[in-house]
Amino acid sequence: MKHLNNRCAGFTLIELLVVISIISLLSSIVLSSLNSARAKARDTKRIAEIQAIVTAIALYENDHGQVPGTDLGPNQVASSPVSDSVGAQIGIGNPIDAALAPYLSAVPKDPKHDGVTYYYAYDPAHCVSTDPLKCGGTACTSTDQWEPVVSIHKLEAPSTNARKDTCAGGHQDIINADYNQVV
Questions:
Q1: What's the number of CA atoms in the CB half-sphere (13 Å) around residue 83?
Q2: Which residues contact 171 (CB under 8 A, 6 or more apart)?
Q3: 131 Cβ partners below 8 Å, 6+ apart?
Q4: Per-residue pLDDT for the chain (183 aa), expressed as one digit of tens each?
Q5: Strand 118-127's sheet: what is its strand order?
């Protein structure tokens, strides 16, 4: 008599669960790497946009003889700040956006945070009379010496090779910014 093999071809439940677990683990590793790469890409875009803003401010200064005022109307300039409480967020419709619009194809907005992380302000810790890229430990003695600074309040991936120039002082939270660029 023939013996029939009652065993059906296929995978057991345990084998299927092991394979599904391995695939889930691998996909979570890939997705976390992808999210990290996306955060670094957004930080790189932020730094490139800050460079574009600095270039736009330089072009504005070339046309008007002064850098744009931080809280003045779009056609006004500032030879010196009134106080360190003068500053503006860029990319949310402030007058600084209108002043820079002719020099930019589009006023930059933060790629993730709806434009609330780019700032423009005079920083009393960056002095004209000293090296503006170095923190001097003491604030400038006169408002005429303050340098305009553009900053990114928060980077997503702190490991980004960004220059972290965060002198104590200034407005628009420049002291806590992850990236400052002197104009």
A1: 1
A2: 84, 85, 86, 87, 121, 122, 123
A3: none
A4: 555 566 667 788 999 999 999 999 999 988 888 888 888 888 888 888 888 998 998 898 888 887 877 545 444 444 444 444 456 778 777 788 888 899 998 888 888 876 557 877 766 666 655 554 555 555 566 666 667 778 777 788 765 455 555 554 555 556 667 777 777
A5: 87-90, 118-127, 146-152, 179-182
